[in-house]
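User: Second chain of the day. Same drill as before.
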Amino acid sequence: MLDFKERYLKNRDKEPLLILDLGSFDVNGSYRGFFDISPWLYRGVDMTEGENVDIVLNNPYDWKTIRSNSVDVLISGQAFEHIEFFWITMLEIERVLRPGGLCCIIAPSGGSEHRYPVDCWRFYSDGFAALGRFARLTVVEAFTQWEPDPRYADLSNSWRDSVLICRKENLHLLSAWKQKILRGILHKISVMQLKGA
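Assistant: Same format as last time:
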């Protein structure tokens, strides 16, 4: 995540960016120290109250408390493996990002089961890229850390993290309207199927 900040946000340190951290509850560390710097506004987002959580979501698939097109950067590290229907969450990420906004999602491709409260998925770069395209975001990068990184002395290398970096394009009015309608339909159908299950 620090690499993402240094490569993609280095020249934006004077902009008042709104940065949301999805899955921010501090279980064993957080990204707040990387992003909670003036003039940026960092907000931790999670399903439960707790340390490093500023916004509590009532529903992981319907973020009514976060306005559309309001977020400059959305980050999420080590949360997507715990989201049962992550593709619906990805539609919400697309909705809240501003045109030109970036998201960086990190999730494991390996490692042991670690329920919190569930552990559902592992991700490869191709799957992450497909997820970005599904949400109609431009995939900037998608990769997996296959080789051990000597900077990590703990068990971090065992997760073989995959990274997805996407951008929401600044579309012409008609194209943006079509995309909004399509996202809304996909989201509504997906959420309705959950209720009927």
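The domain at 2-196 is CATH 3.40.50.150 (Rossmann fold).

User: Great, on to the next one.
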